[in-house]
Amino acid sequence: MGEIIRVLIIEDSQEDAELLIQELIKGGYDPHALVVDTSEKMDGALDRQTWDIVFSDYSLPHFNGGQALMLLRKRSPDLPFIFVSGTIGEEVAVAAMRTGANDYFIKGNLKRLIPTVERELDQAKLRRDHRQSEEMVKHLAYHDALTALPNRTLLEDRLQASILAAQFGNYPMALLLMDLNRFKEINDTLGHHRGDFLLQQVGLLLSNVLFEPNLVARLGGDEFAVLLPKLTEKEDVHAVVHKILHALEKPIMIEGLPIEVELGIGVAIYPDHGANSETLLQRADVAMYTAKETGNGYAIYEDKLNQYSPRRLVLLGELRQAIEKNELLLHFQPKVDLESGCVVGVEALARWQHAEHGFIPPNEFVLPAEKSGLIKPLTQWVLHAALRQCRTWQEQGIRINVAVNLSRRNLQDAQLPDLIAEMLSTYRLEPTCLGLEITESAIMADPANAVEVLTRLSRMGIQISIDDFGTGYSSLSSLTKLPVSSLKIDKSFILGMAEDKNAMIVHSTIGLAHHLGLNVVAEGVESGALLEKLSAFGCDEAQGYFISRPVPAEDLTRWLHESSWGLK
Ligand code: C2E
Ligand code: MG
Ligand code: MG
Hints:
By secondary structure, the chain is of the alpha/beta class. It folds into three domains: 3-142, 3-Layer(aba) Sandwich (Rossmann fold), CATH 3.40.50.2300; 152-308, Alpha-Beta Plaits (2-Layer Sandwich); 312-562, TIM Barrel. The chain has 21 helices and 21 strands. The structure holds ligand C2E and magnesium ion (MG) (2 copies). Ligand C2E binds next to strand 14 and strand 18.
């Protein structure tokens, strides 16, 4: 028996079809043939199975070869298509070849048939292989190797297309960005292959709760995205987010170990939060960042979260230059000891004096700097400037502790302690001259790394304070595990102390902190009445407009000499 070949013959003459089949058998093939004579039957034949080759008569009573060719090319571009006709003229034949037929024969003259079939089958196979490898390359270019999910490129393509469709159809759509909390810790503790397994499981869980046309993508690392290309109501996004959070509530088992997965989801909705893919991506990112900071599971983008308005984006581009060109400056705000009434230290607060936009407050550039990786040079600049000023004061006989604020990313920088040690020696300063302020959420975002870096810093003799205490979720007792010496109660509690509830919180926080051996600083003290109340509560130090606003170094030097709070 010869090689099986699946042949579809479009022919109204059974006899002609039979001649063709005999010719193939003579040539050593075992043709499994089907003869059809209408477009419906041809369609049905193409639906039913795959074919190796198609022969077609040119003119049939209810159909013609040109139509058959068009139909085939739409459905199977690789399949060889050969005309076998009695009536086909030279011109028609050439035209047919141009429209994609592979060859043609005059009925009764099938001498070339076998070599042609062999050649066409070979070429069809080559075309198929080529197409497959093209598809594979395309798949690789658009998918993530670890999870087989669509990657960032595909997500961006689909996002763009969805925005256009939503614009056209006048309906909302949403983009969700999420990343796993503490993935690095899991990865480091359990090893990379278990970390990879976890990512695959998360990808699978996400895919299981989100169906077409929604798209789940992995953007890299522990970052995933979900595209909801069509929402009936914007509010529907809440249900989807809850479904995701619910799906990931149960711990994922890795080699018998239950691993809790927590994630922060940021949501941006078209058209409310942006009309192009870049804006939506970036706003979902801002929201995700907020979700992670607050530990709330998810956050929907709000303008007030945005540190990235178009103006800010331009500014961010300029921030690097500003750092290099010394457009940044520090203001210093004193902290006073409530028992002695003396200044014990100052906090260095970054300012940006922009040539065009004027004064820009730190809340508008610190977070974007953190997101864009500029926080490292920014923090280094601040540390240098603060320590240089501390040196200058020492030379004027003013011994004062200068505190610098650190961001979350700084705590992941294992080189920071060495860098600070080097700077202290450059400026010939004792480590006790420097204080570092870190918010509790910055620590809680990545406790393992934070504790390591903070422990090294505190062993060097640097004082570490928890900033904005009360705004995060950490309990006071969890702070005892950290190498911190003081606690700064967030100004929102201090400013709100007229309310009994806040006053009670402040009072009990002070008591508990003392119990744990921590020094307590109140920030945001705007009035003498507040100061008295804080004194009565046993608060150790205070900082706020009532004492002094943050001011440039020269102004502070003057203030130190003139104010009743100043140097005694
Ligand atoms: P923070 O560390 O909590 O600094 C205290 C903020 O409260 C300062 O705002 C200060 O001007 C303000 N403040 C002080 N006293 C009062 C008061 O009596 N009433 C009120 N309403 N506000 C008061 P500022 O300078 O705008 O800084 C905001 C935040 O930006 C800082 O909060 C800090 O988290 C961050 N930041 C500032 N400089 C740097 C820096 O160099 N590096 C990093 N990573 N963050 C910085
Ligand atoms: Mg601070
Ligand atoms: Mg603060």
